[in-house]
Each structure stands twice: as structure tokens, then as C-alpha cells.
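I hope you will forgive my troubling you with a question about protein structure. The matter concerns a single protein, recorded as an amino acid sequence and a row of C-alpha cells. Please examine both parts with care and let me know of anything in them that strikes you as inconsistent. Here, with my thanks, is the record as I have it:
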Amino acid sequence: MKGFPVFFLILLVFLVSCSSSETEICEATVCTKEFRTITVKFLDDNGSPVIVTSYSAVNKRTGRSMRQTNSLYGQGIYVVASDADLQELSEKGDIVLVSASIPTNNSKISAEFVISGGLCICHVSKISGPETIKI
């Protein structure tokens, strides 16, 4: 009989700790299964795509690199953020600093994006930032 109150107390603590899980917080959210990415295209003066070097995309709030920052998505197109970064981003939006080196003269170029995400958000969303960066 001595073990019964202890077992009941452990069970009660377990049930209370499970009541505020992520699924209950976000259960009203209905998401599609698509995987979204936000990209930027680097172009030269003639409008031709440019493959840059030392590409990075860093969340200024956290100081962390976005997960797919080395992904060349297409000719001169780079991933700024994707759904893989959702939980690293705030719902109000974070500033993501994109920078790269121009291979012809090794100079640096950068641009700021505001990208939103969050725990209960289905997909990343670009609030502001350029579609293309001219070199």
C-alpha cells in the first residue's frame, strides 16, 4: 500500500506535464505537405545568372546560419530559408542577412530579408527582401 501514493503522484505529474504539449498548442493549424523555400537570384548587369562563392544566410536575431545556405537551387539561385528553418524563425519575422562573394573580383555583396516562421506556422514566408541581387 505504501507504493500506491507514490505511483499516483508520479502519474499525476506525468499527466500534467503532457497537457501543454506542442500538438495541443498548434492543433488548430492545418498544413499542406508541400516544402517551401525562399530563394534569391544573383544576376550580372546583362541579367545573366551568376554563381557566387562564400554564400551565406544568417538569422541576425540568433546568429545561426540557415540550414540550407549552401544549396544552389538553380543557375545563380540560392536558398535563403526553407521550411527546414521554421522553428528557428519568429512568427513576426527575423532579419536574415544574405552575403556572398563575387568570383570575378572577390568583392562582397549583401542584402537583408525578413522571413517569418514559428512553431505553429506551416511554411516560411518572405515579408520583405529582393527577388534578385544585381552584381
The chain has a mean pLDDT of 84. The CA atoms of residues 32 and 122 lie 7 Å apart. The first strand starts at residue 37 and ends at 43.
